[in-house]
Write a structure and sequence with these properties.
The chain has ten helices and three strands, in the order H-H-H-H-H-H-H-E-E-H-H-H-E. Strands 1-2-3 form a three-stranded mixed beta sheet. About 55% of the residues lie in helices and about 5% in strands. It is mainly alpha-helical.
């Protein structure tokens, strides 16, 4: 499979972003996640990873967020934010991207969304399992947990995200523990340094 390079992915972000602020928020987040994934992959002791695929997946995973902005290009539909993954999948499908890349959009949210999550919580998603299945998908999902596009954006330690995951139930907390066991925690000092470089808070 031919992978788009970083310039092509940036151009895709620029084409779909409703304005500069949205582009800066989403594209910067995607680049940060790619950097975290690079560092985790370098220490990974499992089966060989397709690191080029991981990087492309990181850079594309949140592109569906652009479809949640209002006409003014600044207001974000937070009530429907959980749909950003499937919206990204749809966006990439319209651009002719293969499923292997589109899944990084639809299968990275939280530590995975199941059919039961959707029906029991009434989530506004097509009923299906949105679970990371390959090591590459799991790494993109995991790296994404250490930076948030909240206002203002912030970096999170593994411990801080673990607390967040527990708020969604023990199954989600266990899912995050499995990811930590598989890939290890990102370096605490590395995250703090990234936060300082970007001028973002570090929530420890």
């Amino acid at each position: 499979m031919d992978l788009p390079d970083e310039a092509a992915i940036r151009a895709l972000h620029e084409r779909h972003a409703p304005g500069r602020a949205a582009f800066d928020l989403v594209h910067t987040h995607c680049r940060i996640v790619a950097g975290i994934a690079d560092a985790l992959a370098a220490r990974y002791g499992g089966p060989a990873l397709d690191t080029d695929l991981v990087r492309a997946g990181c850079l594309l995973h949140d592109i569906g967020v652009y479809r949640l902005y209002g006409p003014d290009g600044t207001s974000l539909d937070h009530a429907r934010y959980i749909r950003h993954g499937v919206l990204g999948d749809e966006l990439l499908a319209a651009e002719g991207f293969p499923e292997r890349l589109r899944r990084f959009c639809s299968h990275h949210t939280g530590v995975g969304i199941t059919r039961d999550d959707i029906t029991s919580r009434g989530l506004p998603l097509p009923v299906a399992d949105y679970l990371a299945e390959t090591p590459e998908e799991r790494l993109v999902m995991y790296a994404d947990k250490f930076h948030t596009k909240s206002s203002p954006p912030a970096f999170l330690s593994a411990g801080r995200y673990a607390e967040h995951a527990r708020g969604f139930g023990e199954d989600k907390a266990a899912g995050f523990r499995r990811l930590r066991d598989e890939f290890g925690d990102p370096g605490h000092d590395e995250l703090a340094a990234l936060a300082a470089r970007h001028g973002h808070a570090f929530l420890d």
